Amino acid sequence: MNNKIALKLTLYFSAVLLVFALIIGGVFYQFFKQQTVEIKEKEMRLRAEKIAEVLGDNMARMESRHGDGIANSKFISYLDNVTQEIVWVVDSNRQLSINKDRVQRQRREVQKHHEHSGFGLFKRQMPPIAWKEPPKTPKDAYERLPVQVKEKVEDGFNGKEFIIEEYNPMLDGIMLTVGRPIYDSQGQVKAVLLLHSPVAGLQDAIWSGLRILLISLLVAMALGMLLSVVLSWRFTGTIEKMKNIAERLAERDYTARTNIKQNDEIGELARTLDILAERLELADAESQKLEKLRREFIANISHELRTPVTVIRGSLEALRDGVVTEKADVEEFHEQMYKESLFLQRLINDLLDLSRLQNTDFPIEKAPLNFVDVMHDAVRSGRQLGADKKLQITGSADKDIYMLNGDYGRLRQMLMIFLHNSIKFSPEGSEIKLELAGNRLKLIDHGCGIKEEDIPHAFDRFYKARNEHNKSGSGLGLAIAKQIAQRHDMQLELQSKLGEGTTIIISLPPELKEKEYADE
Length: 520
Fold this sequence. Notes:
Its EC number is 2.7.13.3. It comes from Phascolarctobacterium succinatutens. It is a multi-pass membrane protein. Keywords: ATP-binding, Cell membrane, Kinase, Membrane, Nucleotide-binding, Phosphoprotein, Transferase, Transmembrane, Transmembrane helix, Two-component regulatory system. The protein has helices at residues 4-65, 73-83, 100-116, 138-143, 147-157, 199-250, 265-320, 327-358, 371-385, 408-425, 477-487, 514-517, and strands at residues 86-91, 96-97, 162-168, 173-183, 189-198, 367-370, 392-397, 403-406, 431-437, 440-445, 491-497, 501-507. The chain is α+β, with helices and mostly antiparallel strands. The chain has a five-stranded antiparallel sheet, sandwiched between helices. Strands 7-9-10-12-11 form a five-stranded mixed sheet, with helices on one face. A two-stranded antiparallel sheet has the order 6-8.
């Protein structure tokens, strides 16, 4: 297979891992970004609350010491350093108190960040810098705030908290801004706190998380791909083994086995392949056996045909050449040729009968008949055949009538084949019995018996026992009897012991009921 399946599986696994990594990365980015922003907002809200409380508690003192809000810049600078955030305060006169040094430093940091980052998760198209010069007064600083921020500041003076993400022209960057009212001791809103945090800081935090995730995913993908390669090779290894076994089977090596033990579809396929190999091995052995029997059969038939043909030819040559002239000798030669021709006719008829019976399209004329009559008819004919050997052939039945559908002539032929074999192999003066009890007919003789290893092959088409009693047999009789039995739905069983005798048991089909044959 040139490892094509292993390569495909590796590519499939890699594609799945890549898609999985992209999905995990995207989901992680969304949740991590949201979580980071939420945490940052929560922290800023908490800081804004604390700063607003501090400013509210010190508002009266600062106003008594300084005439306007901008004078609070020192305290604002202190809060910047303590909170690490950018703190602005808008008082009720709409004056914006800021730490100018922190603003300039923050502008430089933002510009430096943009110069060194070609892209960003929060990067937006920046508008032109609105504050090329720092504001001169707190009032000027407030007036330069974006309209949206001013609107939010007014909401703050109405007692509302707010949080916005917006470009801040003074800080020259996108800022996350939390606004919170500052209350005096009487609960009146005296100012609004604006707490700024650069979004770039969030971006850096998120990128740090994404870098860790990216490295983890790359390591996981590398290990996953390595594992996928190992698993793919292991998976295709069993398929490769089964392919080799199939090739060996195609080359008629039926001893090949996969020996794969797995409780999955591959294991089932391997077991099926092993079963196929076993059946092919059995079929091959059976085929070789049949081929051997066929060769023996052809050799026997050739011998059987050659013998009578040789006798007939020799007799005709002797008569033609005048070698035999005496009338008695001529008649003897004629008789011998006649007997040989009868043998040839019987042999040919047996071959034709077997061929016809094996053909399922060959019709058998079945009609309701009394099988007991068939048995007694065969017994009478058998007595004549066994008269020369003084055999006692008897037939008995537990009932006078056993009706079944069948071909009378073929059933009689089947019984005569069994009787003929029993007569042939029974010693002189012995007994042969046919006993019908229920639906089982037994034919019992006391002949020479059959070897145990020969019993399974007794009904084979080309099988012929070799002994002094069966020199003239063709090996077709029992095969014909088996075909007749099968065409009549009968079962045959052969029991035999060498030197003691043979019993053939015929299991008949169910007896017909009277209404089934009364109208025939």
